Amino acid sequence: MSRLLDTGREDASRRDWQHILHLDAVLLISLLAISAMGLFVLYSAAGQSQDLLVRQLVRLSIAFGAMALVAQLRPQWLWRWSPWLYGVGLLLLVAVLIAGDVGKGAQRWLDFGFVRFQPSEMMKLAVPMMIAWYLSDKRLPANGLQLLVAGSLIALPVLLIAMQPDLGTSLLIGSAGFFVLFLAGLSWRLLGGLTVLAAAAAPLLWHFMHDYQRQRVLTFMNPEHDPLGAGYHIIQSKIAIGSGGVFGKGWLNGTQAHLEFLPERTTDFIFAVLGEEFGLVGIAVLLVTYALIIIRSLHIATNAQDTYGRLLGGSLAMTFFIYIIVNTGMVTGLLPVVGLPLPMVSYGGTSMVTLMAGFGILMSLQTHRKLLTS
Amino acid sequence: MSDRITLKDYLFESRLFMQRAIQALIFATLLIAILMGRLVYLQVLAHEHYITLADDNRIKILPLPPNRGLIFDRNGLILADNLPSYRLEITPEQIHDMDGTVEQLGRLVNIRDVDLKRFRKLRHSTPGFKPVPLRFHLSDEEVARFAINRHKFPGVDIVAGLSRHYPHGPLAAHALGYVGRVDERDLQRINASDYSGTTHIGKVGVEKTYEDTLHGEVGFSQVETNAEGRVLRTLVRTPPVPGKNLYLTLDAELQHAAEQALGEHTGAVIAIDPDNGDVLAFVSLPSYDPNLFVNGIDTETYQALRNDPEQPLFNRALRGQYPPGSTIKPFVGLGGLEQGTTTTHAHTFCPGFYQLPGQPRKYRDWKRGGHGTVDMRDSIAQSCDVYFYDLALSMGIDNLHSYLSQFGFGTRTGIDISGELPGLLPSRQWKRAAHGQVWFPGETLIAGIGQGFMLTTPIQLASGTATLARQGQRLKPHIVDATQPYDDPELSPLAVEKVLDVPVTDPEHWSAVIDAMREVVHGARGTARKVGLDAIYEIAGKTGTAQVFGLKEEEEYEAENLARKLHDHSLFVAFAPVDKPRIAIAVIVEHGGSGSAVAAPIARTILDQYLSKPAS
């Protein structure tokens, strides 16, 4: 294999702590900053529960630990493991459909007795890794047949997860795969064609949706039509954000959040608590930090030394963006209610670990670079 | 590597990626810009609008809890009722001196330590503007006393509600179960929003199994409140849907008779209608008063129940696992006939003990001198152990296991009350897995008389006897007969579930065994002949005396010398009338002694009670 040469020599000038620990300072500091902001908002959203705060801290530590661990892995190892990870993940997804645990009406968990595991989480990383691996030795932009293969590799897990049903995760995984293809030079003409096709397939999709999913779409179209039921979330979160104004009502002073008008306020709708208590300014600070992370991630991707690293890194950066835009879009009433957390801020554990493992990959790409012997 | 790779243009690909990354960034920036636009609209342009809405957001959604369905017996006698009750609630936000207020309240109403503890716990987890209950079930006098002094207690209210009440107290408590306050564990298995406003949930028994049916659907009212949270007017009201009523298969009269018949003994009685699997009586004694649990039991009472050596909270009918003793013999005998191991005419000589070839150990018969020459009919009627040692050995443990399992021994019957235990029907595989040992022939012998490893629950014995009475047709025993929506006088019966029938090789075999069981009660030498003396109907039964305590070969069982907990269990299974069975019954009296002396007369009393009434 002529890619990622092991004969590369480490650049002596880069032998600072970042390269020794295989961490990236910009990413690390921004992520820590967001986690800290998140803890403040969570403390308020949870009615000043220290209990919840401690649990979130534990989860954050685990997530950062996972990041640091993954960052130690060499990119060529990741490359080598990609198809295996993907294959195992796919098998586990099938296993979940057959023997999974039902949580909140959806089958997502595999129970091994000592640990419960959500294979769809693993696929958030395995799918972009697989597509990047598949395209890594192809001449880019990929030809029709290659696109078809890559498309199927994405569609398979996406459909399996949608069947659980977990629309939010399947959307994320679909876009992770899509971004690999896009970054690999998917032609705009084809992209346009696919968009038209998707629009045409929408009625078909509607047919296969669960009742609660249809309800969400209908409610999105007109939240006011069901103010007591599903529309309640969106109306209340808009009131929370809108009443926050430019500077917010101040930490711990959000009436919406504390009077329990705002549902799911520690998890999916925590952005509304931020908006209410810290106002437009607080949101801007958060979004700028997020933007910093995305730009830094894309920068790392462009500097990666091979196609695999570039595609994977770029896809991870854009998936992170999708997380943010889908959650904030949902909370501000721009998008339908899809159950996705606000990264690093929402209370909850599993997805955070995966997310941070993704940043571990980016850090690995950044810090394991070697200079090619010329 | 392939040619294609050498054709890869790294510079081009790198540039292509750079181009795409920039496009992706533009895409992201565009969406972020839209988001920022939206936020500016919400937080700057429409800020006034939303701040007004937030201030006006005194429109609250109040849950309206549904009334819990009632529970009746098969004749419409009420077993679980809802009674109006008053509770005292405090809204912490409106109280300045909580300790003082509670202390003053304590002079008007009785506040126990449990109440205080629960109040403090709930207060922690409830926002301050929400009322927290301090006392449930106020007496009329307490309500009146508080009403007079109400003006002194702003922020304290008396709220009317319904509270579960079991008018018959301990009667059938182990079948009914009880409701208790929703706790953390319950919250994990229910949808919290369905229970907003509901304070109680089924904890055990039918109350738990049929929780979904009994609970109903929560309703909501949208109310406008002032800044302090007082309701000004109701805007919209979605009424709750009350839970469905349950009609049990239980016959309260028979249940009462059975509990009376068992008296001071500890044990269990199950009576089943063989025609449909209806559980007519479900007795586990001692029982307890389920009303104690409804509004929180105090620690001392609970500890007393927990530590009572007779274990009143233990559901013996469902979870008591006893050696079946000789009550297993009709099933073993039938297996021997059906599998062709023996015939109704085959004879065995019983000298009072049995020896495996080449082994010195004597397996004793309960009758010292032996039964002489006996066939199947004699052996069931007189409960000859030696005959069944011999038969079990000829059948072998594998055949014995496979035949008995068809009657449901060793597996849960699936009755609609949760917590059932499976008993134990031993096999080679089981022994290897559980003890890591091979199966010994001696263990087959004692399995043939229902001793050794074998364990059965009272519900299994009754269900097996019902299957015998129905000549192999096996129905799942069930205790809920029908449900009834609150607005509909019509009952909707639940379907009777069939289980895989026991195959019939020759109906004559079944008749022979049933006839032998008739002989137990009505024959001149039957072990239960005393209870059949003046019966106006025919009973097919089998006595059993289950050893709790293993005796050495030469030891004599002398009840006086043994502690009560080592005394034998007394068992009796029966169905009647023989020609057209209407009831199948299993009676287990813990440490009662012999089956014929204790369990059989109890069963007779219950059968009389049921059969004295014409079939419905």
Task: Describe what this molecule looks like in 3D.
Chain A has 14 helices and 3 strands. Chain A has 374 residues and is mainly α. Chain A has a 3-stranded antiparallel sheet with strand order 1-2-3, with helices on one face. In chain A, a hairpin with a 4-residue loop joins strand 2 and strand 3. With 616 residues, chain B is α+β, with helices and mostly antiparallel strands. Helix content of chain B is 38%, strand content 20%. In chain B, the strands form 7 sheets. In chain B, strands 2, 3, 4, 5, 12, 19 and 20 form a 7-stranded mixed sheet that branches. In chain B, a hairpin with a 6-residue loop joins strand 16 and strand 17. In chain B, helix 11 runs antiparallel to helix 22. Chain B starts with a helix and ends in a 5-residue tail after the last helix. The chains are: A mainly alpha (374), B alpha+beta (616).
Features of the shown structure:
heterodimer, A: 374 residues, 68% helix, B: alpha+beta, seven-stranded mixed sheet
Number of strand elements of chain B: 23
Multimeric status of the protein: heterodimer
Query: SSE order of chain A, as H and E?
Result: HHHHEEEHHHHHHHHHH
Residues in β-strands, percent of chain A? under 5%
Distance linking N and C termini of chain B: 87 Å
Mean pLDDT of chain B: 87
